[in-house]
Write a structure and sequence with these properties.
Blueprint: E1 2-5, E2 8-16, H1 21-36, E3 40-47, H2 52-64, E4 68-74, H3 89-99, H4 104-109, E5 117-121, H5 125-134, E6 139-143, H6 147-162, H7 192-203, E7 209-212, H8 220-227, E8 238-240, H9 256-263, E9 270-274, H10 283-296, E10 299-304, H11 317-321, H12 323-332, E11 335-339, H13 344-348, E12 353-358, H14 362-371, E13 374-377, H15 384-394, E14 397-399, H16 416-428, H17 430-447, H18 452-465
Parallel strand pairs: 2-3, 2-5, 3-4, 5-6, 6-7, 7-8, 9-10, 9-12, 10-11, 12-13, 13-14
Antiparallel strand pairs: 1-2
Bound molecules: uridine-5'-diphosphate-glucose.
Uridine-5'-diphosphate-glucose binds next to helix 1, helix 13 and helix 14.
């Protein structure tokens, strides 16, 4: 349904993100993009949030874009989740949102003008699409990881019906996926993540289309396999809409000194080190990483994180990395270590940054592609090995395959010497330098006017207006 404003039909779109910045970020970007295309946007703001980064980014969005309307969605208080007490706080919160789904129905009913479409985060899809169906609102899914990961998501429910244990997976139209690359939680059928994964994988079929923050040339095989019916028959169209642009609305996060320091560094000389919004390293690994960065001889900007949830991350930098490293970095001007939120997209877009040691959360990969920054992939869990393999295949960077991930059997702390060597090699690799420049051009072409991602989204908006 669309509303009429003057002569023009205005589409009214509601967006529902899930827990954590890895999920909120693409929704913030999509919301501001839709608003800039003239859509009326209702942004469903989950209350409470897990991290303060989420609250700050939501406030910044609403204060900068008056045309984006907040719809507060207070969650049920759930005590009855004892079975999942040890689960990751973000997955647990996601489960709370899912169990509160029925509360959204009256809130959506009260919206005026009525909605033309409802875009829901993949991790909430199976709980909320039935709600939108009750109101006859067409549902769309925003898949927050790669299209390559989407092939696994779509394929797995069928596979798991026959298999007790997931082994290597051969998805039609795709390169074989070894068991070691599959998100570790999926090897445990009782895991909360696995249950959500399977239910949401089935719900893909109920959407009108699946939107992915990627671009066709980066994942041509996956987009073709998904849209050609090779992965699952009857899958709705998969539309690549990335790289999504960063909204103008941003909390005053990155301390000014980070950018003042970057401004003083030579072009492409700095390696930026960050593992996203929710990956904490052990103290032992933090120490070795510090040793490695110094040994690399390269300039570095390192965002240290020792707790999954930012609200609990109170330890000082001195305790975590040691005063020596901080002082040497300051003294020689070669290294800056920070804690707390930095505006990563802006850091990656800074001319001084030439490399990125990344866990390969999907937003980080797409941001690096759009900024032309090469990646040293060090996946830590979830979808990150799948994304790291894509980084390697696309020429966006290299993957330190031999480095284990969190909790993996036999995984050891990666030694500083090894880290230093890989960082040095990354910055000196001219072959990767050339391929990254090509990927960047393709990214810019896709998201620019007339590009495949731009047109893919424009077609959807047109449909919502009709
Ligand atoms: N970010 C900042 N500053 C920080 C930390 C993070 O701007 O100090 C941003 C970053 O630019 C990115 C987002 O926060 O846009 C983080 O997203 P991502 O890079 O995808 O990492 P995670 O936060 O780890 O994301 C989760 C999962 C990851 C998955 C992703 C999307 O951990 O594996 O790919 O969600 O589903």
């Amino acid at each position: 349904m669309s509303a009429t404003s003057g002569d023009a039909q205005v589409s009214h779109v509601a967006l529902l993100p899930s827990a954590g910045m890895g999920h909120l970020t693409p929704f913030l970007r999509l919301a501001s993009t839709l608003a800039s295309h003239g859509c009326r946007v209702t942004f469903i703001a989950i209350h409470p949030t897990v991290s303060s980064a989420e609250s700050l980014h939501l406030s910044a969005l609403f204060s900068t874009y008056p045309q984006i309307h907040p719809l507060e969605f207070p969650l049920l208080h759930l005590d009855a989740m004892d079975a999942y007490k040890l689960a990751d706080p973000f997955y647990l919160h996601c489960e709370s949102i899912r169990r509160s789904a029925h509360l959204l129905l009256p809130l959506l009913t009260s919206l005026s003008p009525p909605l033309s479409s409802f875009i829901v985060d993949i991790s909430l899809a199976s709980a909320f699409i039935p709600i939108a169906n009750k109101l006859d609102i067409p549902s769309y899914i925003l898949f927050t990881s790669s299209a390559t990961m989407l092939t696994l998501f779509a394929y797995l429910p069928g596979l798991i019906a026959d298999a007790k244990r997931i082994d290597d997976v051969a998805i039609p139209g795709m390169q074989p996926l070894p068991a070691s690359m599959i998100p570790p939680a999926l090897h445990d059928p009782t895991n909360l993540f696995t249950k959500q994964f399977i239910e949401n994988g089935r719900a893909l079929l109920q959407a009108k289309a699946i939107l992915v923050n990627t671009f066709e040339s980066l994942e041509a095989d996956a987009v073709a396999a998904l849209n050609g019916g090779a992965v699952v028959r009857g899958l709705p169209p998969v539309v690549a809409i990335g790289p999504l642009h960063q909204p103008a609305a941003r909390p005053s996060g990155s301390p000014g000194r980070t950018f003042a320091w970057l401004d003083a560094q030579p072009a492409r000389s700095v390696v930026y080190v960050s593992f996203g919004s929710r990956t904490a390293l052990s103290r032992a690994q933090i120490k070795e990483l510090g040793v490695g960065l110094e040994r690399s001889g390269c300039r570095f900007l390192w965002v240290v994180k020792s707790k999954i949830v930012d609200r609990e991350d109170g330890e000082g930098l001195e305790e975590l990395v040691g005063n020596g490293l901080l002082e040497r970095g300051r003294g020689r001007g070669k290294g800056l270590v920070v804690k707390g939120w930095v505006d990563q997209n802006e850091v990656l877009g800074h001319g001084a940054v030439g490399g990125f040691v990344s866990h390969c959360g999907w937003n980080s990969v797409v941001e690096a592609a759009a900024c032309g920054v090469r990646i040293l992939a060090w996946p830590r869990g979830a979808d990150q090995r799948v994304n790291a393999s894509l980084v390697e295949r696309s020429g966006l960077g290299v993957w330190a395959r031999e480095w284990g991930w969190d909790g993996e059997e036999g995984a050891e702390v990666v030694r500083g010497e090894e880290i230093g060597q890989r960082v040095r090699e990354l910055l000196g690799d001219t072959h990767v330098g050339e391929s990254v420049a090509r990927v960047r051009e393709e990214a810019l072409r896709a998201s620019g006017v007339g590009g495949s991602s731009y047109e893919g989204l424009a077609d959807l908006i047109e449909k919502w207006r009709a």
